[in-house]
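Forum: Protein Structure Q&A
Topic: Joint prediction for protein chains with partners

I've read a bunch of threads here and the consensus seems to be that you should model interacting components together rather than docking separate models afterwards. I'd like to see that in practice. Below is the full input, 1126 residues plus whatever partners are listed. Could one of the regulars post the assembled result?
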Amino acid sequence: MIDWKALATEKRNSVNSLIPKPWRLESPIPPASEQRDVTGKFIQQFLSPREIEITETDAVGIVKNTTSGSWKAREVAEAFCHRAALAHQMVNCLHEIFFDAAISDAQKLDDYYAEHKKPIGPLHGLPVSLKDQFHVKGVETTMGYVGWIGTFEGKKNTGKEKIFESEMVTELRALGAVLYCKTSVPHTLMAGETVNNIIDYTWNPKNRLLASGGSSGGEGALIGLKGSPVGFGTDIGGSIRIPAAFNGFYGIRPSSGRLPYEGMANSMDGQNSILSVVGPLGTSVGSLKLVIKSLLSQQPWLHDPLVSEIPWRDEQEQAIFDIVKSSGGGQLAFAVMKSDGIVQPQPPVLRAIEMVVKVIEKLGHKVIEWNPPSHSRAVDLAYKTWVYDGGADVHDAFALSGEPMSNQIKPAYGTRKAEYTASQIAAVNIQKREYQKEYMEYWNSTSALTGTGRPVEAIIAPVAPFPAARPEMYTYYGMSTWVNLLDYSAAILPVTQVDKSIDVIDKEYKPMNEHDEKVYSSYDPEIYDGAHVSIQVVGRRFQEEKVLALTEILGDALGKHIA
Amino acid sequence: MIDWKALATEKRNSVNSLIPKPWRLESPIPPASEQRDVTGKFIQQFLSPREIEITETDAVGIVKNTTSGSWKAREVAEAFCHRAALAHQMVNCLHEIFFDAAISDAQKLDDYYAEHKKPIGPLHGLPVSLKDQFHVKGVETTMGYVGWIGTFEGKKNTGKEKIFESEMVTELRALGAVLYCKTSVPHTLMAGETVNNIIDYTWNPKNRLLASGGSSGGEGALIGLKGSPVGFGTDIGGSIRIPAAFNGFYGIRPSSGRLPYEGMANSMDGQNSILSVVGPLGTSVGSLKLVIKSLLSQQPWLHDPLVSEIPWRDEQEQAIFDIVKSSGGGQLAFAVMKSDGIVQPQPPVLRAIEMVVKVIEKLGHKVIEWNPPSHSRAVDLAYKTWVYDGGADVHDAFALSGEPMSNQIKPAYGTRKAEYTASQIAAVNIQKREYQKEYMEYWNSTSALTGTGRPVEAIIAPVAPFPAARPEMYTYYGMSTWVNLLDYSAAILPVTQVDKSIDVIDKEYKPMNEHDEKVYSSYDPEIYDGAHVSIQVVGRRFQEEKVLALTEILGDALGKHIA
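Posted by a regular:
Agreed with the consensus. Here's the joint model:
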């Protein structure tokens, strides 16, 4: 019998011990009841003005300075390592720390620059955080499983332990990025909160009564505290978008096959109906574009068999800006979907959508209502793909150590069930394709409604029914999973913050069903006060350039060029 | 108990009755023992000089005439309908005939041209034949199953019968193509020969002792007899390439997601590990390019959720021509793979590969040997995807009528087996991805061997171990299926014809294994004499433009600009 608690404690302590002594907090921070928000001024008190200047610059601003030699990569790396160390001590957001390697890598970049008088690549000196699915030499990948400690994806003596690197890691290094930490995830990856038996719970730094989101929840908390300018997460049901939204910054779920997932750890690997995708989260739209465009310049389709050969298309981005700038002010057209017909978002989310609609209209663009094919079909189909193997993969992972499954995971995986057969999986694949086709033709049909002669550019929709989940109260994922079923590109747009004096409970509202009732009853203005509120901008498949352009236009209009 | 024989006879007769009386052969053609080859002069005897001129022009030449008003669409349609009718009477290559609709559609195109003085689209007046998986209004889709007669994909009263059209059919019509027949397939589609209980066997018109190939075998025979300038087949294990090769003309298997499969009938629909792809077969490389480029101009990604947004890329094609035309004569680099390590091709195929190597060298390009990761891994994995459902789908289809399964299908599907579970399918998907990654890196590594600084442009390889299969002797598919596993783009290059005086049996050869022994012993120079011999040109994923450019360069050098 393995003592999983001892193993977990040892792992947690060994990671924490990598925080240099001068960066350790002398005393624990006040409890959430006293200090709900640890962002902004709270975390700044532990940093020098220069560190604050560096860490509150977005990725675009950082590379402007590092690729021109104005800022040293080493100083930038040290500032982010320090701030990440503080963030971790406040909200438990890191699984692996490799600050020494980062500072050493940054020094090499500075040496290169000194010798060659030019940067090594477009991301020269840019710190990039990675979700704990990426393999990085020198450190482990536990993905929150105690049973993965000391292994390679749960297997011992593979020869890959602490040596093998994921394809994107290789590419980021070639581009000049500095890697320094891996961020926390919920074990199994299948939750919108981040909790596991190694680091416990990753809290939302803006409001520590709430979740940081999941499954890229460590990225959410870390970037939310500006302990990273840009990082990479993954998304099979909302796992990039949810933490970006809960923490009030930008993120994009690209379509599958746009960016390289090759060589990453995963849950239910080989499930082929809805693929998990990798994508960036960051404090500005520009930062997302910067890293995507840089990665595509590496021709990842020559190193990842699942990546489609679609280079960055400046012209698709430009087409949007051209419409906006055309003489007389050209019109874009958006659709708005407040509810998916199953669950009504909580008041702050509804208000955020209203705000975005007003901004769109103020900018002179069109907004139509979105009345798509039934979303409950999408939600049901997406859920089926999560449980094809009846939980075999995750149960095997828990069994490695005997550790318990967290409550957040139990609804889907608590009981191991029969596996789907080939014919049952094929039936889901057909229904999925039919749904995609129907949805696509609905989207095409909006050209008759927009007045622009084109279908809508994107859909404005909630990504979750709440600003952020309360612990163990993330009961409905349908607002994010439909995007995965359709394989659409979707970015997060941070909009506002909860104001308990405005975002009051609608006592007249009659919930439509059990899901809706749970979401409705979990809203409490007192608890939510101050939390970030974000929505998603959903584009068609492989429309990353367009979605980012639209999101930037809206973010700028909302005064959030840098979140 | 359904009388499947009566149903099949009735269907066969009803289709044959659609051949206008003047086009019916007065007496049966001589048996294969007397008249092996029915192409060329043999079929020409039943046609007028003008009909011969039209039908022996390739698609590029046809649209040049029809889009400029030189040729009337109606005259072109009538000529091809006539020649297709003759072809069918010689080798059983059609499942559906709709000459009346075609001639009426062609007349409308002529009327349009007369009124607007311009063509309706780039395929204005081009006859296009379709494999019997396409749904076309007015006719059935049986896919060779007696149980599908009078149904929509085996289901009755769906409301779609004889009304619903596949996405590509809609697009072809919009481009101006004239649809006039659907071509024969082996029931289940899972064979390299074409046989079913409705039309019996589709023979190879160049050598009626041999198979026309499969599963797009009707396309192979029809285009081989020039009863169609260009047609569409599908390929999950070689089904476009095999009939193109066996009948000595061009064809391309695009990567999955390049062309729209939406709304087509299929076997084992929903199997998601290796997707069947749709692609063109035709008498010139230009004709394949013409139809692919035209279809992509329709933005099929807006109407098929599985199509990737990759427009036709002139620049990728041009990059190849630029290398060749650069001052001093730039070098291309090819790899050559004579055997896959499992089976040695028969003497005529080996000779064809040697001929291509000599042509490449004569053109001043480089040839290196291909020593890839084990092909037996690829062959085993591809086969597993064929039997995920244990044969459930095909057994259900046979059970609709009680008709027997042909011998060609029995090795894979004779006995119904247990279905794969979700975990077993996931394991195949992972092994497939790992194999793809390994193969891709091997390909990348050839940049060190070519002398051009680039990896090889393409691989020259056999597509089958024989020039064409002898009936019931297609025992090894591994030479085509590895391309499907890797999702590579691959075109057929017709090279030569069997010459019994040159292509003698190598009596010293010691077969490597049981597969190899069967292939070796099935070669008989007397039987094969005169048959077409073709090979495949294999490019990386989504390299259709490049593969076609390379195939055109080689085809031109072989004197086969039009096959």
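Residues 4-26+37-557 of chain B form a domain with the Amidase signature (AS) enzymes fold (CATH 3.90.1300.10).
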